[in-house]
Amino acid sequence: MSQNNLFSLRRWKLLAAKVFLYYQQPYYRGTGAQLAFYLIMSLVPLIVLLAQLCGAFSISPAMVSELMAEYLNPQALEMLARILPQVTHSGSGAFSAVALLLALWAASKAQFCIVGICNYAYTGKIRVHGFIRERMRAILNVALLLLLVVASLIVLVYGEVILTMVGFYMDRILGVSFNFNTIWYLIRWPAAIAVYVIVVSYVYYSSIAVKVGYSRVLPGSIAAACGMLIISWGYSIYVTAFANFDALYGSLASIIALLFWFYILGTVFVVGILFNLAWEETKHIG
């Protein structure tokens, strides 16, 4: 694909029109709400598994809440702060293999829903390889994504120690000054975007039943990842400054706000899938 093709206004107009027309199909209209529902259903099992994994690396719930404060909106953070201490208290004993499998099964509901959406987008069928096989793939994806999240948390928790050691080496041996705060300020948001893109692209790539090259899911992954970050930032401002969920929903306010956020994220996620389809169809438009 040429550079002129990439920056072609005609192509981008056609691409936007195709994504819009795809989303008008009856199947896709409810997928955002469907994903939001399954994300809510998967939230507690995911946090249970995350707490167990973090405990193996001496990462406490307080550390997780503090680290996530910069990247989550207030409602998600409030829900996380409520659930994490309860999970840690109730899960302080041995986590059996049966409990692990049950938690993975429950946590994979949202991923299983994504598998169906991706299958339909690329094949026209929701189930291609059958319920059991595709549910197993959803469980595997959840397990791998949890490991990625834990790896990211390890970097956030112990990254300062690692960078301090690197800085000491560079300063004392190479004679190059190194400031951790400056480096972290410069890389934290690019790193967050990179993690979003990696996670979204992996979910797209691994959820499709047919073989699709990784390069074919990357454009939509970048668009969806950037869209999720922008939407989360804008929604956080909206909820803080304008919305008054407490007056309307009372004690359910935080759940409603979180559910609405998940609905927006789910819609953006589905649009990213459709973006990939439209990108392929318009790649020869100059």
Question: Strands, helices and their partners?
Answer:
Layout: H1 3-6, H2 9-23, H3 26-29, H4 31-55, H5 61-68, H6 74-90, H7 97-107, H8 109-123, H9 131-174, H10 180-207, H11 214-241, H12 245-249, H13 253-281
Helix pairs in contact: 2-13, 4-6, 4-7, 4-8, 4-9, 4-13, 5-6, 6-13, 8-9, 8-10, 8-13, 9-10, 10-11, 11-13
Q: What this model shows, in words?
A:
- It is a single chain.
- By secondary structure, this protein is an all-alpha fold.
- It has one domain (3-281).
- It has 13 helices and no strands.
- The protein has helices at residues 3-6, 9-23, 26-29, 31-55, 61-68, 74-90, 97-107, 109-123, 131-174, 180-207, 214-241, 245-249, 253-281.
What's the total helix number?
13
Domain count: 1
Helix-strand pattern, N to C? HHHHHHHHHHHHH
Helical fraction? over 70%
Q: Largest sheet, if any? A: none
User: Stretches where pLDDT falls below 50 for ≥5 residues?
Assistant: 90-94
Pick out its properties.
286 residues, 13 helices, 81% helix
Describe, in short, the structure shown:
With 286 residues, the chain is mainly alpha-helical. 81% of the residues lie in helices and 0% in strands.
